[in-house]
Amino acid sequence: MGAAVRTRTQVVIIGAGPSGLLLGQLLHGSGIDAVILERQTPDYVLGRIRAGVLEQGTVDLLDKVGAGDRCAIEGLVHGGVELAFGGARHRIDLSRFSGGKHVTVYGQTEVTRDLMNVRAAAGCPTIYGAADVQLHDFDGESPRVSYVLNGQTHEIACDVIAGCDGFHGISRASVPASAITTVERIYPFGWLGVLADVPPVSEELIYVNHPLGFALCSMRSRSRSRFYIQCELGEDVADWSDDRFFDALRQRLDPEAAEALVTGPSLEKSVAPLRSFVAEPMRFGRLFLAGDAAHIVPPTGAKGLNVAASDVHYLHASLDAHFNHHDAAALDLYSPRALLRVWKAVRFSWWMTSMLHRFPENGAFGQRIQEAELSYLTGSDAAATSMAENYVGLPF
Ligand code: APR
Ligand code: PHB
After folding, report:
1. Which atom of ligand 2 approaches the CA of 51 most closely?
2. Spacing, Cα 260 to ligand 1 middle (Å)
3. Are residues 308 and 259 in the same domain?
4. Which pLDDT tens digit goes with each residue over 138-185?
5. Which of 15, 140, 195, 307 stands the most exposed, by the fewest C-beta atoms within 10 Å?
6. C-beta of residue 396 within 8 angstroms of C-beta of residue 303
């Protein structure tokens, strides 16, 4: 192999998921140069199906970078969610309890596609298929990132590295173990999810607590639904025909929802484990972690993408102050500011998960506590206000 091709930029962003793409466009808007390195192809990145509920703060960031047009047209505005337990449904009026706020139902895949399109239109560089990405010297003032593309080694010198490469990325793994603390909870079950071109069961999302396990009826549009049921860890999707899935889902629904459930061939079916995970701090010298690279929440409450977006907002603010206003303290602010909000999202996602799933180890006491929690939540304005404030998104 010949000598490395050497270039320079201000920020190297690792990972072209929603975090990396959003950061890239916010930096572009502030006149800060960035190169994104992505291991996969664009089609591969767009093939990942994830949650689909956006807080207003996330929508505002998409608007800010010019990626919000399609979401404004196609996104479904939801002012409430339903909780089903004991055979009946109870609506939490998110708008009423949050001072008129709402969430927007719009798939993460579409968010990623819209961000890719604005990035391409702006002529900003994203290198897909970047192999063997390695981070160098981020404990000093002059970090570098190397990668291999089509057999050629490249090396980019930069001021800052943004690790936006998800839970399995190289960025967090490059930090010496002694410099990082990780906190984790693995839940003793998973979610089996199905995407299908059938109309939603109801106007709003239905979160179900049932003796057979959690279920969720969500949607991507008026003609595309996303369903989940709680399943065993390590469940094999091959054992789940569409019929078996829909029968299991129907059993967990109240009679009206069961009647309204329209079934159809699955477009995608997958099992996801549930975990809460936080790596602290989120900064190591000139390396900054954002999104899934730093933390994971269980999907109950759909906070993953939204907390990634708030990280990116804080990181952009610190980088803008550092590069454009020569604020010497700006880089120090990122990790503590981001972590305060991260932990609140971790708490809310854990709380939603704990309230709605069957925990094998909890027994009758745990079951009755869940019933009391749900009864309190649906009967108390104070409790509903707390849920609504978190579900629509804490400020940032
Ligand atoms: N080199 C380059 N790119 C990498 C590497 C690597 N070594 N490792 C991972 N990547 C890329 C992945 O291929 C992926 O495209 O980094 C990207 C990370 O994207 P995401 O996993 O989507 O993470 P993030 O952008 O932080 O998005 C957070 O995604 O997982 C959901 O719930 C989460 O909704 C939240 C959102
Ligand atoms: C989804 O639509 O995929 C979804 C919605 C809400 C959640 C989790 C996932 O809490």
Report:
1. 3
2. 36
3. no
4. 999 999 999 999 999 999 999 999 999 999 999 999 999 999 999 999
5. 140
6. no
